[in-house]
Design brief:
single chain, alpha+beta, five-stranded mixed beta sheet, 16 helices, 11 strands, 46% helix, globular
Length: 419
C-alpha cells in the first residue's frame, strides 16, 4: 500500500493510498471549515451548507446527484464536525472519475435554489427537534457549551433553530467565499485508485480556484461550568468533562490510553465498578477527544434519579484512584485495544481516506502508521498515573438531564477529586 501526496500551485492538496486487493475506492473532499469557524450569528451554517450541497447544482438536480452515484452501485454522503466538513463517495474502480466530478460539482457549484433552501431548512429544523428529544444526544452539546462557554467551539454543530430559520442564499455564499478556498480543501482517496490519474482528474476541477487567506479559528479555552436540566425522564443522564491534550500535544496518546483504561471497554474501571459491581447503570463510558488546540475527556452514564448522586461521586473516586494504582495490565490492555481499533479501522477504504485527510490537515503530512503504533507503545503506567494526577488539580465541566435534582453540584465533585 502506497501513500502519495500532491499539492497544486493554489494550495489544493491531494492524498491517496492505493490498496491493490480492492475493486472499490473511497473518494472525498475534506474542507477545513466546521462549526468552530462560524460567527455567533452563523452558528449552524456549516451544517446547513453540507445539506445544501446535495440539493442541486447548475448541472445536476438533487435527484440526478443521487442517481448518478447510485446508478453505478455507489453511495454518497457528508458530515459536519466542529473543525471539518466532509463530502465523500464509495464507488467501484471504474467510477472514481464520476465520483470526483460529482463531488467537485456539489461542493464548488451548489445552486442554492430558494425553494430548496426552504425545504432543507425544514429538514434541519426537524433534525434539531429530534436531537432535543434525545437526552443522550443533546446532553453532549450541553457539556460542550459549558466547557467552552461563549466560544465557537462550544456551540452546537446543528445550530439553534432561530439562526437556522434566518439563513438565506447570501449567508451560504458568504460562508463559502470565506472558508472554501483551495488551501482549505483536501481531496483524499483510498482503495482502487491511481494517484497520478486522480491528480490529472483533479487539476481541471480545482486547479483554477484562486488561492485565498486561510481563516484562523478562535483559540479554545476550556473552562469550568455546569448545566442541570431537571425533567421527568426514566433515566438521569450524567456527563462530566476534563480538559485533555490537543492533537499535536506530546500527551495525546497518554490521554487516549488513560480514558480507555478508565471507561473504554467492558473491562474498564468505570464499567466494572459502576455497572458490574454496583449495578448503577446500563451504559457508562469514558473517551478522550481532541481538536487542534484543546481536547476533552468525556465521561457519560445513565442511571436512576435515586442513584445519580452515588454514581457521580463514585466516578470521581475512580478518576482519583487511577492516579494512585493504575496497573501495568490495565495500561497494556488499553494500549492493545487502541492499536487494534486503529488497525481494524484501516480495513475499510472509507476509514483510510478519512484518516489520510485528517492527518494531512493536522500534521501537513501523513505520518507512517508505525509512528502512531510506536507512540501508543511508549505510553507507560507512570505516564498514565501522572496524567490522571494532573486532572485532579484541574476543573471539570458537567451537564445533567432528567431526574437529577439530587445530584451533587460541580463544586462537590471538584472537592471529591481533590480530597
Amino acid at each position: 500500500m502506497t501513500i502519495q501526496t500532491t499539492t497544486l500551485p493554489n494550495g489544493f492538496r491531494i492524498v491517496t493510498e492505493h490498496m491493490p486487493t480492492l475493486e472499490s475506492a473511497a473518494v472525498g473532499l475534506w474542507v477545513e471549515a466546521g462549526a468552530r469557524h462560524e460567527r455567533a450569528e452563523q452558528n449552524g451554517i456549516a451544517h446547513f451548507l453540507e445539506h445544501m450541497a446535495f440539493k442541486g447544482t447548475a448541472r445536476r438536480s438533487a435527484l440526478q446527484i443521487a442517481e448518478e452515484i447510485e446508478d453505478v452501485g455507489g453511495y454518497i454522503n457528508a458530515y459536519t464536525s466542529r473543525e471539518m466538513t466532509a463530502f465523500y463517495a464509495r464507488v467501484l474502480r471504474a467510477d472514481v472519475g464520476l465520483a470526483l466530478d460529482v463531488l467537485a460539482d456539489i461542493v464548488l457549484n451548489p445552486a442554492f435554489d430558494a425553494r430548496e433552501i426552504e425545504v432543507e431548512r425544514g429538514v434541519i429544523l426537524q433534525e434539531i427537534g429530534q436531537s432535543l428529544d434525545t437526552p443522550d444526544d443533546i446532553i453532549f452539546d450541553w457539556l460542550q457549551e459549558v466547557a467552552y462557554p461563549g466560544q465557537p467551539i462550544g456551540r452546537p454543530i446543528l445550530g439553534p433553530s432561530a439562526a437556522v430559520q434566518g439563513f438565506g442564499e447570501d449567508d451560504l455564499r458568504s460562508f463559502v467565499a470565506s472558508h472554501y478556498g483551495p488551501g482549505q480543501m483536501i481531496l483524499s482517496a483510498a482503495g482502487a485508485v491511481d494517484h497520478d490519474v486522480l491528480v490529472r482528474l483533479a487539476e481541471p476541477l480545482f486547479g483554477h480556484l484562486a488561492a485565498k487567506p486561510v481563516a484562523v479559528a478562535d483559540v479554545a479555552r476550556f473552562q469550568t461550568g455546569e448545566r442541570r436540566e431537571v425533567k421527568s425522564l426514566e433515566q438521569a443522564h450524567f456527563t462530566f468533562a476534563l480538559e485533555a491534550p490537543a492533537y499535536r500535544h506530546a500527551d495525546f496518546y497518554t490521554s487516549q490510553v488513560f480514558s480507555g483504561a478508565l471507561g473504554g471497554s467492558m473491562s474498564s474501571r468505570l464499567f466494572q465498578r459502576l455497572r458490574e459491581d454496583r449495578g448503577l447503570c446500563y451504559t457508562v463510558f469514558a473517551q478522550s477527544g481532541a481538536y487542534a488546540d484543546t481536547g476533552m475527556i468525556t465521561i457519560y452514564a445513565g442511571t436512576g434519579g435515586d442513584q445519580v448522586a452515588d454514581l457521580a461521586l463514585l466516578t470521581m473516586d475512580e478518576v482519583k484512584r487511577a492516579a494512585e494504582d493504575m496497573s501495568e495490565a490495565e495500561v497494556a490492555r488499553a494500549r492493545a485495544q487502541m492499536k487494534a481499533g486503529l488497525l481494524m479501522g484501516l480495513e475499510s477504504p472509507s476509514a483510510r481516506a478519512e484518516r489520510l485527510a485528517k492527518l494531512l490537515s493536522i500534521w501537513g503530512r501523513v505520518p507512517d502508521l508505525s509512528e502512531a503504533i510506536a507512540r501508543i507503545d511508549a505510553v507507560d503506567v507512570a505516564g498514565v498515573r501522572d496524567h490522571a494526577a494532573g486532572l485532579l488539580s484541574g476543573n471539570g465541566a458537567m451537564a445533567l438531564y432528567g431526574p437529577v435534582g439530587d445530584a451533587p453540584d460541580l463544586s462537590q465533585l471538584h472537592a471529591r477529586l481533590a480530597a
